[in-house]
Amino acid sequence: METSRADDRPLQRTPTLERVLERLSAKLTRQIWLFGLGTLLAWLSAWLLFAFLADYGLRVPQGVRVLHTLVAVVLPCWCAWRYLLRPLGRRPDRASTAVLLERARPQTSDLFVSAVQLQQRERVEGARELIDDVLREAERQAHGAQLQGVLDESPARKRAALGGGSVALLAGLSLAFPELARTFVLRAFDPSVRWPQRTHLTLEIPLGAEKAAVESKDGELFVRVARGSDVPILVRASGLAPDEIQLQLRGADALSITASSDDTYRTLLRSLQQDVELRASGGDDDGSNARARIQVLSPPDVSGLAMSIEPPAYSGLPARVEFDRDVEVLAGSRLQVSVLTQPAEARAQARLLPEDRLVELGPLAFPAREAGAEPLPGRGFELLALESLRLRFELQDEHGLKNPDPGLFGVRVFADEKPQVSIYSPARAEFDTLVGGWIPLRARASDDFGIAAMQWSVRSPGDESAPPPREIEWRVIADGERESDETRAVVALAGARLEVTALGDAARPVVEGAQYTLEVLANDNRPGAAEAGAARSAALHVRVVSTEEFLRRTQDRLARVRLSVGELESLARDKGRRARELVASLESDAPERGAAASELAALHSGARRVEGDAQAIARELCSIAEAVLYARLDEEADSALMALDTALSTAPRSGSFPWDAWRGFGRGSESGRGRATLAGQLAGLVDLGLTIDLDDARAAAKAAERAAQSVDIGEIHAALGEHVRLAEQLDGHVQDLLARLAEWDNFQSILSLTKDILNRQKALRERAKAALGGK
């Protein structure tokens, strides 16, 4: 609303209305000033804040700062003209002010505007009385006129608050950071003024004194390291940490290093071979105080290591010398450790780990590497090897430089273990026998270096003290008698045929129901081994039972063998039937079906199962025969027992099952099979069991293996034919064995009836004697 103010005379006839309009005009002027000044201050504050952030954050050049200063001058001038001077020049006159007042009071029907215009005109035509009435009415209503709501004051107040808040914010930031505010103002006029440095880098080389010599001077590090060392570089940033820094190496491209999780910058210079100068820069730090100079020197080193080893005399091991390697020695060996160093005058120490003990190296001759050569002057020390250790040689030259990688040399000390003792006869850990029987005690002991003695001991369940050991015959077997898989240097065999009555004594004789625990002991030839105690075998539990109990248990064992033989028969027939089917396939029009690798492999696997079951049956029959014969149930079998005992005692073995001795027993008792004796019955069972295992099952398994490994159909057919023949032969022998086991049942029944008749006759005689004695 723009109006000329030339004829804007005061309203003399309506002074109240005049005062109301003056107040409204003054209020409008204040709103213009508030809005204009608020806008000017807000824009100026925003621009100054933007200029500060741009200069502080981006470090803009001088030309940009001059532009920012010009904008800071021009912007307030424009805001003063646009939002203050121009609105003030366009303020409304009295008539327009009356219009503003009328808009807030629509009920006046332009009464105030009419009163203003009637008084501002020089000549007014019309009825004087009507004009006077209008003026009087306007004056009267002016007394109650209110200015609230005439003007919208909120924009001006908000703009004034914005401007004042902006100024307050700038003032608060200036007070909080006076140095930054002062620098910002000075930089607007003086380009030489610099911002305070935000990033401060410090360079570190975290190497211990044993790996490097580090000195610091005037903010620069001087480092001496050994040639080939890995040098870690650590840069710390205080203040504003940049995302990455530049590590500048003289004569090489700069390395960019990003920050790690702990706001440090790390890298590794690997295997340095020449001197290096480096500097770290990043952010606004040019690296003037983060510099290092690394000097690479040749480190001292071990050029030769010799260990002269003298084993303990009892071991029989020869003395030897080992060069430049880890060694393995027997506990109690004496070691002479000597080294050659480069340079020869370097200080040398040996650190013994894990006890972490330092040993100074004294003068000690270095053994010659070649025969006939002279020893070299060296340094070293001596020690007695009692436990495993590691050696680390630490050298230091005249410059204080140490060998960067001393290296570890191991000395593994192995103890002379106790002998390993096992009882292989009787084969079972629980052995049942009779009062008049024998015990075939045979044991085996092995040791790394030697066995001094072997003994045996027996203990009853009620014994509280350790039983005294008893002597047993033993011998060290020769190399020709040893098995190929034997790993220990010395193997000894011990054996004795013990009478059951020898287990007791006069105070506690052997009776039925007694139980004993037998052990075989072996003493090492190591000095002091006797004090440590002898090595013991697993316990052999001997039970002395009655004849009836012994026969019952024997019968139970044979019954279980009979069940196993029945299962073997079923398995062998099934595998034999499959073999015949494969033979038929080979002889048909499609022989490739019978030569299938999967079918032949399955046949071989089944044959191995048959072989394993047959071997278990044969060994169980031998075990039963051994228990019965050594129990001496049948006095007529003593000759067979003695022959078997001699064969088992002299069998050239060190732990495997003596098949040859048992086969000789079975075939040697052929004449006794037709007689109703225990020896004859047992010989027949053992011979059949060994025939099934050694002659039938093993040969059939080998034939199946040849068939599985052959590629020619003719060879496969021949091997399968041999397997079928052996399977049929095995089936016949299994049937014979089942029949003999059934005969054993009948034999046992006859023995039981005969024994029962004899017992009844004995009881009858006792009653008859008692009756005659009573008369």
Report on the structure:
- This protein has 15 helices and 29 strands.
- The chain is an alpha+beta fold.
- The protein has five domains: 15-187, no CATH class; 199-297, Sandwich (Immunoglobulin-like), CATH 2.60.40; 301-414, Immunoglobulin-like, CATH 2.60.40; 420-545, Immunoglobulins (Immunoglobulin-like, Sandwich), CATH 2.60.40.10; 549-762, no CATH class.
- The strands form six sheets. A six-stranded mixed sheet has the order 2-3-9-8-5-6, with no helix packed on it. Strands 21, 23, 24, 27, 28 and 29 form a six-stranded mixed sheet that branches. The chain has a five-stranded antiparallel sheet with strand order 11-10-13-17-16, with no helix packed on it.
- α12 (638-649) packs antiparallel against α13 (659-668), α13 packs across α14 (678-709) and α14 runs antiparallel to α15.
- The chain is elongated.
- The chain starts with 14 loop residues before the first helix and ends with a helix.
- Mean pLDDT is 81; it is low at 1-6 and 671-675.
